[in-house]
């Protein structure tokens, strides 16, 4: 149980285009999902907190108009990188909190999505 | 504010040798502590966690970590490593009631060699 799936796992796009990454909780309901960005050989940087049915909360320095987050249902959150540029190339990872497990602090992570912008 | 320090960026070790990956944290309140493992081009998998109770926690694949409040540490240990343990290990902390917001350390690359 507690599986989180991301799609696509790999994506290559041209500069200036937009890319959407999906994060789904397959067997639980997630009121809260988190989006991270990971640079090579570095730690995860929290980008934003996505709450079902409300606006995402972005961390300082993250452009909300650049990284659009939608959490329309209890099992799906999407991250759209708009007008992507090569510097947006990175590994994007989502995680989700199982609302049925209370506030244990545990999060379940997706497999990650590697974005390469040419 | 919380922070997590993993002093060792890389730890090379021979197969069947013991290993310790260090993690120290700072927080003004009580914390939950986690170790996650990341294999190449994959997301993170929970290895073990400390929420409350016994300060020694164990994973199903032989890792253990001990919460030491006085030293604000949560070091990860394994008495005998295997090649398949080669991966990146992240220590993380969150605050009870903090909305599951995790703060990660910079990670330690464990490389097990024959």
Write down the secondary-structure element order of chain A: EEEEEEEEEEE
Q: What is the alpha-carbon Rg of chain A in Å?
A: 14 Å
Strand content of chain A: over 45%
Query: C-alpha Rg of chain B, in Å?
Result: 14 Å
Helical segment tally of chain A?
0
Largest interface, chains and sizes: A-B, 25 and 25 residues
Number of helices of chain B: 0
Indicate the mean pLDDT of chain A: 90
How are helices and strands ordered from N to C of chain B?
Answer: EEEEEEEEEEEE
Terminal Cα span of chain B: 41 Å
* Shape annotation of chain A: globular
Oligomer: heterodimer
Give a quick rundown of the structure.
The complex is a heterodimer of chains A (118) and B (114). By secondary structure, chain A is mainly β.
Model description:
Chain A is built from no helices and eleven strands. Chain A has strands at 4-7, 10-13, 19-25, 32-38, 44-51, 57-58, 67-73, 76-81, 90-97, 108-109, 113-117. In chain A, strands 2, 4, 5, 6, 9, 10 and 11 form a seven-stranded mixed beta sheet that branches. Chain A has a four-stranded antiparallel beta sheet with strand order 1-3-8-7, with no helix packed on it. Chain A is an all-beta fold and 118 residues long. In chain A, a hairpin with a 5-residue loop joins strand 4 and strand 5. In chain A, 0% of the residues lie in helices and 51% in strands. Chain B is mainly beta and 114 residues long. In chain B, 0% of the residues lie in helices and 51% in strands. Chain B contains no helices and twelve strands. In chain B, strands 2, 5, 6, 10, 11 and 12 form a six-stranded mixed beta sheet that branches. In chain B, strand 5 (32-38) and strand 6 form a beta hairpin. Chain B is globular and about 45 Å long. The model of chain B has no long low-confidence stretch (mean pLDDT 91).
Topology overview:
The complex is a heterodimer of chains A (118) and B (114).
Chain A: E1 4-7, E2 10-13, E3 19-25, E4 32-38, E5 44-51, E6 57-58, E7 67-73, E8 76-81, E9 90-97, E10 108-109, E11 113-117
Parallel strand pairs in A: 2-11
Antiparallel strand pairs in A: 1-3, 3-8, 4-5, 4-9, 5-6, 7-8, 9-10, 9-11
Chain B: E1 3-5, E2 10-14, E3 19-21, E4 24-26, E5 32-38, E6 44-50, E7 56-58, E8 64-68, E9 73-78, E10 87-94, E11 103-104, E12 108-113
Parallel strand pairs in B: 2-12
Antiparallel strand pairs in B: 1-4, 3-9, 5-6, 5-10, 7-8, 8-9, 10-11, 10-12
């Amino acid at each position: 149980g507690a599986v989180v799936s991301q799609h696509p796992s790999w994506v290559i796009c041209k500069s200036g285009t937009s890319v959407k990454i999906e994060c789904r909780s397959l067997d639980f309901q997630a009121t809260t999902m988190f989006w991270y960005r990971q640079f090579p050989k570095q730690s995860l940087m929290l980008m934003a907190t996505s709450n079902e049915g409300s606006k995402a909360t972005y961390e300082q320095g993250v452009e909300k108009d650049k990284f659009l987050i939608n959490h329309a249902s209890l099992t799906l959150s999407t991250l759209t990188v708009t007008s992507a540029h090569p510097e947006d190339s990175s590994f994007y990872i989502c995680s989700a909190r199982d609302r049925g497990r209370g506030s244990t602090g545990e999060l379940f992570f997706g497999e990650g999505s590697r974005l390469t912008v040419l | 504010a919380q922070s997590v320090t993993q002093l060792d960026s890389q730890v090379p070790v021979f197969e069947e040798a013991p290993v310790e990956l260090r993690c120290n944290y700072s927080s003004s309140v009580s914390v939950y502590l986690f170790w996650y493992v990341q294999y190449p081009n994959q997301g993170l998998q929970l290895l073990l966690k400390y929420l409350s109770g016994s300060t020694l926690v164990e994973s199903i694949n032989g890792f253990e970590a001990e919460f030491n409040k006085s030293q604000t540490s949560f070091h990860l240990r394994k008495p005998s490593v295997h090649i398949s343990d080669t991966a990146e290990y992240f220590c993380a902390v969150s605050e009870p009631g903090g909305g599951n917001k995790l703060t990660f350390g910079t990670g330690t690359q464990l490389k097990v060699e024959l």
